[in-house]
Prior knowledge:
It is a single chain. It is globular, with a radius of gyration of 24 Å. Strand 1 and strand 2 form a beta hairpin. It has two domains: 2-188 and 238-254 and 302-437, Na+/H+ antiporter like domain (Na+/H+ antiporter like fold); 259-296, no CATH class. The chain has helices at 2-42, 47-54, 72-98, 104-128, 146-156, 162-186, 193-211, 217-235, 239-248, 258-274, 285-301, 304-328, 338-341, 346-371, 383-392, 397-407, 411-437, and strands at residues 57-62, 65-71. The protein contains 17 helices and two strands. Helices cover 73% and strands 3% of the residues. It is an all-alpha fold.
Amino acid sequence: MNSQYKNRVNNQVIMHVQRFIRHEKSGGIVLGISVIIALFLANSPWAAQYFYFFEQKIGFTVNDKSYLNFDLYHWINDGLMAMFFFVVGLELKREFIAGELSNIRKAILPIGAAIGGMVVPALIYLFFNSAEPAAKGWGIPMATDIAFALGVLYLLGNKVPLSIKVFLTALAIVDDLGAVLVIAFFYTSDISILSLVIGLGFVLAMFITNKMGVKNVIFYAVLGIGGVWMAFLLSGVHATIAAVLAAFMIPADSRINENTYIARISKLLRRFKEADPNDNRTLENEQVHILDRIKEDTNSAIPPLQRLEHAMHPLVAFIIMPIFALANAGVSFGDVNFAVLFSTNVALGVALGLLLGKVIGVVGTSIVLIKLKIATPPIGMTKRKLLGIGFLAAIGFTMSMFITTLAFTDPTLLIQAKIGIFTASIIGGVVGYCLLKKK
């Protein structure tokens, strides 16, 4: 019975990873197209209109006093991207509960590789940029863009075993958690203690209602958006942290367990089969009623966490991340003064931090953990494939670009960081693809 249960859990984990990969590779393609469109618009005759559009402010006024009056850049980076981080939080919680990170023996290698892949890039960046304000960008080369990385793996098809795709997925998820912690502790503005306490109060309310057995998704949406996210937005702590905290409060257990669900569905299917059919293409009222019951029981059998993750993945992959790319990836090369561009080592620090730091950190840490027999390599992992994974981890577009918007306000530093991200991501993707393509 235990072995059957373990096999069922393992099959479910593999199924979730495969579905996740399918979403991510498709999202990576759409994200790449969005980057190209943003670069085209920024260097086209419509460049002025492109930049002006995202500078428009949206808010509301009460008694001649403005509230939440932010430009589109701010709403996208603090609003829409909060939904991206909410899904990241859901994925993290699922991985810790029933995924690759739930088994400490399996989790050691991707966790260690992710930590090495964050620390070494930050040190390389600081080696080249030790003085302020450039030093504030040390968090930029720490991140891996899972959508682009898995998109490259998809292009390789069955040349890369599923176990290695799972390893990269787990590594990137731990990487995301590290980025969230970096944003929380190092990229926040002046903090309003009152707003922060109110936000944490809503988090506590979500936690208590979760423990009380409340499973209503709309209830958690009201508390999460109207309470946690709004309070954090006004507190000075980045609003995306609120999204991750809210995600961790979403229930991960269902209203009815598997055995109860199987018993109910079996009974309903028998009733459906025994119901008097008609000779028309439509169903009898009794059959429609039975199908409605099946639908209700099926929804009750899916944990709210997984239901939300499944529903929001397409929204994040095909709408939110492309919008983020359209707003932030536009670099006007015609206005770039190359003497100013290399006036600091930001571009060099970001590029080398991603390309060298990620490879040295991911590959080096993995080899040490395997040699010391602290962790075991995934099935099919070779030194060449591990090196290829290291280069794919150097694709740092989305999260690196996001941290750039938090680290710098100087337009010159912003452009320098973006050039470094583009350079490293393109080279890392191409080199990683070539290494993994060879047997």
